[in-house]
Amino acid sequence: MKKIICILSAAFLFFYCRGQEILNPLPQAKFITRFPFRQFSGGVMTVKAVLNAGKDSLNFILDTGSGGISLDSATCADLSLKLTPSDTTITGMGGTHKVSFAYNQQLHLPGLTVEKLNFHVNDYDILTSVYGEKIDGIIGYSFFSRYIVKINFDKKEIEVYSPGEITYPKGGTILRPAFTTLPIIPLNVRDERSKNFSFYFDTGAGLCFLMSENFAKDSGILLSRRKPVMIQAEGMGGRLQMQLTVVKQLQIGHFKFRKVPTYIYSDMFNVTSYPFVGGLVGNDLLRRFNLVINYPKREIHLTPNNSFNDPFDYAYTGMAIYFIDNKIIVDDVIANSPAEKAGLQKGDIIIGVGNNLSNNIQEYKNLLQTINNRIKIIILRNGLVSEVYIKPKSILK
């Protein structure tokens, strides 16, 4: 029987009964383990874990936007895993394709072994090139559905608890998402007009906010006089172009954020399930809270953390850079962008930014987030080293 793994519209299930309702109290949630995570650009989190009886730890993205759990195809080959072809289809930004599975695997996190996991297999070369480190897989619903997961961005630490009653921190708010395998939360978006709508809660997305082009058009929410800029982004199927703009206000629970960077996505495969869901809120906004992700009780608790008032990144260079074969390479330059005006070209190898010669793509991206400053970039082109100067502009203008 053909199966489909994709983002679907929210389905609600109600139970009715007659007579007196009998409630069985849940046991107290029990602490299981605590371990660190790392953060990449856009707030994306990675954790270390070991597969089966392996000796080497692997890098996994912790992603509420994943409806299962997955492994990179190259990692599977390196580990000589037995893969079973299937008719299961995964749909994500950029494409749809069938996947194989590595069935009945164990994943060893620090202090916790998760049994009987069925990993679907995908190619994550694009993620490795974006973050400059090997990405071996993505941990999603198959993990979150079994536990209560606390994510503390102040300490860069994760705590895992058994399902049960748990006391949430004071000063926060409780969201009660609708679920497919992905949490869907209500947001209020305000720009030219105000709109309440449903959006995915996606810790694996390295951005603040994304709207499908259809939602943006039908809602009439964006200011017509503000012209978005074109950027290159990354999806499951590879590289794709999106528009980047700003919305005046985004409200999640009772917390409001102003002038939020917003991607507009031409959703050819209807990944966002519009008109049921309008897009997603990503981890560059969610990292401003400490989270308690309680799938067993269908709740997510948000508490503002030390990054709550961090400024948003409005810098625009108009180029995409990737880490490929141990080199940081310019892949795309948008016409009339600061990168084109600086003289950068596709295929240029970036040796340094400013005085930083680390060959670390994360550090280079951070250095290029300074608006209206003239920034030196050292490049290698056709075997010759030269310097160019770029002046990133703000998407607010």
Overview of this protein structure:
It is a single chain. With 397 residues, the chain is mainly β. Helices cover 10% and strands 44% of the residues. The chain folds into three domains: 30-161, Cathepsin D, subunit A, domain 1, CATH 2.40.70; 173-288 and 296-304, Cathepsin D, subunit A, domain 1 (Beta Barrel), CATH 2.40.70; 315-394, Roll (Pdz3 Domain). The chain has helices at 73-78, 125-131, 141-144, 213-219, 283-286, 338-342, 361-367; strands at residues 4-5, 31-36, 38-39, 45-51, 58-62, 69-72, 89-92, 95-98, 101-109, 112-122, 137-139, 148-152, 157-161, 173-175, 178-179, 183-190, 194-201, 209-212, 229-235, 238-252, 255-265, 279-281, 289-294, 299-304, 315-316, 319-324, 327-333, 349-353, 375-381, 384-390, 393-394. The strands form six sheets. The protein has a six-stranded antiparallel sheet, with no helix packed on it. The longest helix is centred in the N-terminal third of the chain and has 7 residues, at 125-131. The protein is globular, with a radius of gyration of 22 Å. The model is unreliable at 1-22 (pLDDT under 50).
